Amino acid sequence: MIILNAMSQTPVSPPSRLVIASRESRLAMWQAEHVRDCLKSLYPACDVQILGMTTRGDQILDKALSKVGGKGLFVKELEAALEDGRADLAVHSLKDVPMIMPEGFELACVMAREDARDAFVSNDYASLEDLPAGAVVGTSSLRRESVLRSRFPHLKIEPLRGNLDTRMGKLDRGEYQAIILAAAGLKRLGLESRIRAYLPYDPYTPAAGQGALGIEMLSAHPQIKHWLAPLNDLPTLLAVSAERMVSRQLGGSCEVPLAAHATWNQNQMEIRSFVASIDGKAACMARSSAMVKTVADAEALGLAVAQDLIGQGAAKLLPHGLPG
Ligand SMILES: NCc1[nH]cc(CCC(=O)O)c1CC(=O)O
């Protein structure tokens, strides 16, 4: 649970030094630098440093994420740096943050979301519809694979791992006719011009948290939450709270195609979600809208959507059944 701008009774003095742990990929570094710049403008006297590190998710590139135990693969080393005091904050793509965080860790804040859509990238084709039979499409996500297989059974879907630059390189060397990536990462790295088409939320619903940044901290250091509170973006916080609740209720793993996307505007939230089989032949889909004013309201809507999916038989699509 995140407290927005919690006005503490005892004034907290501004930070004098903050160390941000980050993965070393270009996107992760962009995100860490963005957080550093925001902190520097909030606290001009604060010394803000970035500690770059490699995670297991960056090292293992020859296997599908779903096969190497996707959960937390990109965050564990960063959490270790927080635990031994080498860093105060860890910046993550919220999509990569497990739905249930380990004991002692929490989100300090959720920052404004970039474009949450998936993007179609290709050198030779303008859209998925233009791809000929047998064309190879690269994606590392079972969620994207499932929708592609159901809509375009004539395409060949093949795994695509590595950081953004690696993935673009594989496309440019002709290993794939097209690839699907999160628009957010491409835009952040100045690669927006490579996007040939934006995939609509229906049916290409993104993963919970896609496009948003989450900053992780140790629960034992509550002053950090206070310092970072101004970086929270309310529409994003409410949307991702609902999305992450859906995902958490369904076991939130990378081993099953699972999508959840919410928007919030003037107290009105809309949310859509699906759970599907990898071949795209079976799917449960739910959408809902409600008046939402607080994180608790958003989570209640997420819970209702998860229950709708479960009522449709979503548990049968989950590799380990329902959690708990
Ligand atoms: N799973 C890897 C990952 N984690 C975050 C992003 C993109 C940026 C974002 O969603 O914030 C990506 C790459 C992708 O899905 O194309």
From TrEMBL:
PROSITE patterns: PORPHOBILINOGEN_DEAM (PS00533). Its cofactor is dipyrromethane. It comes from the Bacteria. Pathway: Porphyrin-containing compound metabolism; protoporphyrin-IX biosynthesis; coproporphyrinogen-III from 5-aminolevulinate: step 2/4. GO terms for biological process: protoporphyrinogen IX biosynthetic process. The keyword Transferase applies. It holds the Pfam family Porphobil_deamC. Coiled coil: none annotated. The modification S-(dipyrrolylmethanemethyl)cysteine is found at C254. Its EC number is 2.5.1.61. GO terms for cellular component: cytoplasm. Keywords: Porphyrin biosynthesis, Transferase. Binds 1 dipyrromethane group covalently. NCBIfam families: hemC. Tetrapolymerization of the monopyrrole PBG into the hydroxymethylbilane pre-uroporphyrinogen in several discrete steps. This is Porphobilinogen deaminase. It comes from Polynucleobacter sphagniphilus.
